[in-house]
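Q&A log
Question type: sequence-to-structure
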Amino acid sequence: MKRRAFIKGTASLSLLPVVKPLAGLATQSRNMKIKIDHIASDFERQPLVRPFGFKGGYLTELWQAVSLIQTAASGPKIGLATQSVLYGDPAIFSDHSESAGNALMYALSERALRLAKETPFHTPVDLLSDILPEVTRYAASVTGRGSANLNFIYNALVSVDNAAWLVYASENKCPHFDAMIPDAYKKPLGLRNPRIAVMYQIPYGMPMTDLVNAAEEGYFVFKIKTGMPGDQEQMLRSDMERLDLIHRTLKDLRTPQTKDGRLIYTLDANGRYGKKESLLKFLDHAKKIGAFEQIKLIEEPFWESNNETVGDVGVIIGADESVHTEADAIKRIQQGYKAIVLKGIAKTLSVSFKIAKVAYEHHVACMCADLTVNPLLLDWHKNLAARLQPFPGIGMPMIETNGDMNYKNWDLMKTFHPVQNASWQQVKQGVFELDDDFYERSGGIFMGTAHYEQLFHRKQE
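Response status: OK
Response body:
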């Protein structure tokens, strides 16, 4: 099902070499403001294989939002987004039916698109900053809650932001992703890594046979969704039981990708733990069953309002949902967080550039987590991950991708990508191998996509 809306105006790898960008990339003149002439929007509903559980809730489908932006010089550019209301604001998700929550986010995207048309900009970073206050006010109104989590708002802005970056690249004659990165963000995104480790996600309810099969295929980083449904006591008990089951399944399996041969665990509670005491109980349990040494990262364990320090936990703690701005990133770093999760496909590429800069300046690691995005958005995100510093103890950046295991129509969705069957699109022994072709073609993100372009009528109002 789809909907159209047209808007007038329409071995250890730690020793592997890291390849840096080509020297002497031309810097384009970017003094002229870009003025959008035409805009349009649409979306597709994509069902999931099974209910997808995290943050104490479950999704059954994901809407793929599409924004079209055109200037007099650029021609039409298509920006994509995957909407995840449960990720963006669990309160809004629980207040509405799943479809109604998606409709609210889509309405916010359309409002942002209208505002973008009225707002000339130098870079999409400037554009997002200019329209964000009004988009925030509109979100409070349309949701009826008086406020909406900023992650909900950012998620609604992703398709607009991506389209704006494509227009920006066209207007400034940027041939690839490196050239498109504004000067202020080139240092934190200054590498061209030959490999990215893929984080294999384990959501609630996944059969253990899937984990064994994944390990046999070469996956060696397993991301475990914690924060099970229920109150805090029920959640902690369920998380411990779940870790028991997962560790019994994986503990004796080995990989050539790590120094000790053991698989790597990361945990993601999506902000479900109320206090540090509960997390420490969980980690004590991990020590008891012999799983602690394999845990290399815990993403966003606490409620966003939790301000406890985490430098003494004994594991790298990463901030995700609680980091909306550069100030948020600095606050978490001061509290002992040693990693920041970048989500260019959930919080916009523009915001991710700014957060990556703060992390780089404070010597804090970054990695890229998924939003169960479509294949083309995966390569948008891969462009971001590929340029980060290697994650500590891994020897390469990390990226999560779980669309292939969750979308009912994943194989069909892959045909919407402008590049088919490239080597850098395949996971091999748990990694994406990125060659010169990936970097020269920027993962295909500048090439257009016929399927999504065909969603729009030729005639605009």
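Response note: The first helix runs from residue 85 to 88.
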